[in-house]
Amino acid sequence: MKKWGCFVSILLMTTGCSLGNVKEDVANQKNRNPLCAAIDDCFTYLNEATQNQLVVIEANAIPEDRSNDKDYQSFVKKSLERLRDYHIQLEQAKKYGLNSEELLKTIEDIIETDPNQAEEMSLTAVLTDQYNTVEPERFNAFQDTLTAYSKAYFLLFDHHRNYIYSEEEDFLATIKEIEQEISKLKKEIDQELEAVLLADGKKDKSKNDTQEKPEKSTAEKASSEKKVVEKKKEPETKKQEPKKTQPPINEDNITFEFLAKEGNTDYRLLVYAIKEGIHREENGWAGADAGDLITHGKYKLILVNLATDEQLDQLIIGTHEFNLNRNDVRMLSNRWLLISSVESSNVRSGNLYHIQNGKIQAVRNVDSEYGELYFVENGIKVFDDSLIQTFNYSNADGTWYIDDFRYHSPSETLSVESYHQIASPTGNQIYDQWVNDPSYYYYEG
Fold it and tell me: Is pLDDT above 80 for 95?
């Protein structure tokens, strides 16, 4: 998204609602309906808005000739991969709750409602591609199903977003219906594609079978029969699926780069700009001094094998603003990346990302509403890859608050294991020692 507008359709872009409003509404269940407060039937209104979005998307579609079989099959493969990637991202974000800010961020990042601003990787762009595509004649029926499949995904994401802004329970029932439709369409997609490709295979096989072959000698037949017997004895091996190729990395789009390590494998971990602007801070505040260089935009993380230069994983992290003169992004250890921002003069909030089996995992603090950690500048450390300690300070009473978080690998979450309170000036002394000694872990024995 160019801006964090909380519109639920192109018709709602003038509502003036900000992400801050969403955060408040999500936190306060009694006031969750900023867009529809004056509308009697919010469910009907938002459904109509979604249909209007689809009309605009279809109207913005530009017919593209993919009538060459090879081109069209490549296009289909890419479309299906994207739709299924979106599904995985949605399922991961739903773990935070159906009215959570995390889910909203995921939907807004993926769907890109405005066709005029839609990025190539967005769901709106994928759906636009499906409309008016000139496909090979024998793929006509398949193209209709693929378009319906993409449309169903668009409706699914859009209805999840609309549910965040509405208290209408009907949205949950509609989402369930769309999920069932997607399941049905997926089966049809697989069957239709298999039928077309199978017809090609049979055609090629028939062509080969009609070619005359010289008759084998008795010795050749015996040898051939022996090979067949031996082949039956061989253990079955699973066919390896081809790896999904990633677009090449544009070095100019790398905002931050770090070296990471897991076992004996070395990586490049990139904070990569999908869209980015840059400016200098004019007026100083807690998060920036006047003249600091500030970047702002939409970003993703990319993990690259240092030895082979192979892109192993990508994770979209959404919209961020980074102060290049501060420690907003840094590695806490070989496998832990911290992305943080200033909340006040002595408090930062941060999100953690963990490298696990060659993948980038977003790690959520289950004891925080938005999954973040809070700490003073430099007040966060990782110990033994599974224990994280943070220091917070309260100006109001001069107290230090120390939290110990345990990392849970399967769920990629953190939970508070223990906590301590220390009054100043003792707390100041402990914090100074903790910051200056990387191996120092505070505990009360």
Answer: no
Give yes or no for a contact between 419 and 401, defined as CB atoms under 8 angstroms apart.
yes
Q: Residue 165 pLDDT more than 80?
A: no
User: Phi then psi for 420, rounded to 5 degrees?
Assistant: -140, 155
State the SS3 of the chain.
CCCCECCCCHHHCCCCCEHHHHHHHHHCHHHCCCCCCCCCCHHHHHHHHHHHHHHHHHHCCCCEECCCHHHHHHHHHHHHHHHHHHHHHHHHHHCCCCCCHHHHHHHHHHHCCCCCCCCCCCHHHHHHHHCCEECCHHHHHHHHHHHHHHHHHHHHHHHHHHHHCCCCCHHHHHHHHHHHHHHHHHHHHHHHHHHHHHHHHHHHHHHHHCCCCCCCCHHHHHHHHHHHHHHHHCCCCCCCCCCCCCCCCCHHHEEEEEEEEECCEEEEEEEEEEEEEEEECCCCECCECCCCEEEEEEEEEEEEECCCCCEEEEEEEEEEEEECCCCCEEEEECCEEEEEEEEECCEEEEEEEEEECCEEEEEEECCCCCCCEEECCCCEEEECCCEEEEEEEECCCCEEEEEEEEEECCCCEEEEEEEEEEECCHHHHHHHHHHHCCCCCCCCC
Q: Is the pLDDT of residue 86 over 60?
A: yes
Look at residue 51 and tell me whether its pLDDT is greater than 80. yes
d(C-alpha 80, C-alpha 65), whole Å: 19
Q: How many CB atoms lie within 10 A of CB 412?
A: 18
Candidate from 23-27, 82-86, 251-255, 319-323 with smallest mean pLDDT: 23-27
CB under 8 Å to 278, separation ≥6 — which residues?
293, 294, 295, 296
Enumerate the domain spans of the chain: 10-197, 255-436
Question: pLDDT category, 114, cuts 50, 70, 90?
Answer: low
283 phi-psi bin (left φ>0, alpha ψ -120 to 50, beta other):
beta
The C-alpha angle with vertex 216 and arms to 215 and 220, in degrees rounded to 5, equals: 180
